[in-house]
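Our preliminary data section would be incomplete without showing what the modeling component actually yields. Below, a chain of 343 amino acids is followed by its predicted structure, encoded as tokens that our downstream tools consume directly.
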Amino acid sequence: MADNQTIIIKKIKKSGGGHHGGAWKIAYADFVTAMMAFFLLLWLLNSVTQDQLQGIADHFAPISTSKSTSGSGQILGGKVMGEQGAMDVSSSRASVSVDLPPPKAGSGGEQSSDAPPSDAPSDASKQQEQAQFDKAAEELRQAVESIPSLRRLAKSLLIDNTPEGLRIQIVDQKGLAMFPSGSSKMYLYTRKVLGLIAKVINTMPQKISIAGHTDSVKFHTNSGYSNWELSADRANASRRELEKLGVPFGRVAKVVGKADTEPLLPDDPKNARNRRISIILLRGTGHKKAAPDGGGGQGAAKKSPAPELSPLPPLPKVQPVIPEPAPSGSSESAQPAPSTPAE
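Predicted structure:
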């Protein structure tokens, strides 16, 4: 019977998961997720400002619900709840202090509701002044172009608007100088150009400033006379000529010599066009201040508004004058001073 016994053999098939099966995959996924969260946190911390970080820290910081030991020591801390929040208990009503401006001077002691006038020109006056500047610049250009003897000086006359005011510049050209070399005695045609400018100045209410400029060519004599003195002397010569042509002495605000400190062509400081006379109609100086009033009526006295600028009349025609030849060359000191033409 033993020979007929059935033998059963069990075979166990192992999966292909290795020694640990598939559990390592779950652990690795948890690790990757944790690293992603960590780097995301680092990125968020780097992308916010210090104030935002401080706000987050304050949000999680433990705070006390009561900072006061008065009253019950609870949330309201001895205060009552009103429409404007917690208020102190008091038998009297809360007072409000308001700083009032000092009263204006007047016979009745009443205050005027009008705002105090300012000495600064209004926007309308500024626009009117700018319109006068534009009209004066156009008429001055046309006056130079209309005179055949001065037509070649059109390139020597530069007119532009600056924050300081309307700037009129008389510049030298190569072969056509406004002054003899090293001298402050101007040529006859320079006087004629200044005559046109003087007519414009006399029709405008603004004060003027005059500046002399030279090129960067070194000019120095044994007596110490340099480009500084030369530029100042040319500016003063222009001032004297304008006064001869009718410009009042009080209209001149300043006269300066700047030598070669402000070249017209910074890239070419030795160019002849750097030698020039600059005349500026100063912006905002043509508005007269209102006269003060004693104030004898009710309320504060009102100042009269600034007078409106009168329209610019047309420039009178200038008789043609044949200009004298100018010295050639662009240097201030490299050429001898030519004889001054007779007027």
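The two ends are 161 Å apart (CA to CA). The domain at 123-282 is CATH 3.30.1330.60 (60s Ribosomal Protein L30; Chain: A;). Preliminary results of this kind motivate Aim 1 of the renewal.
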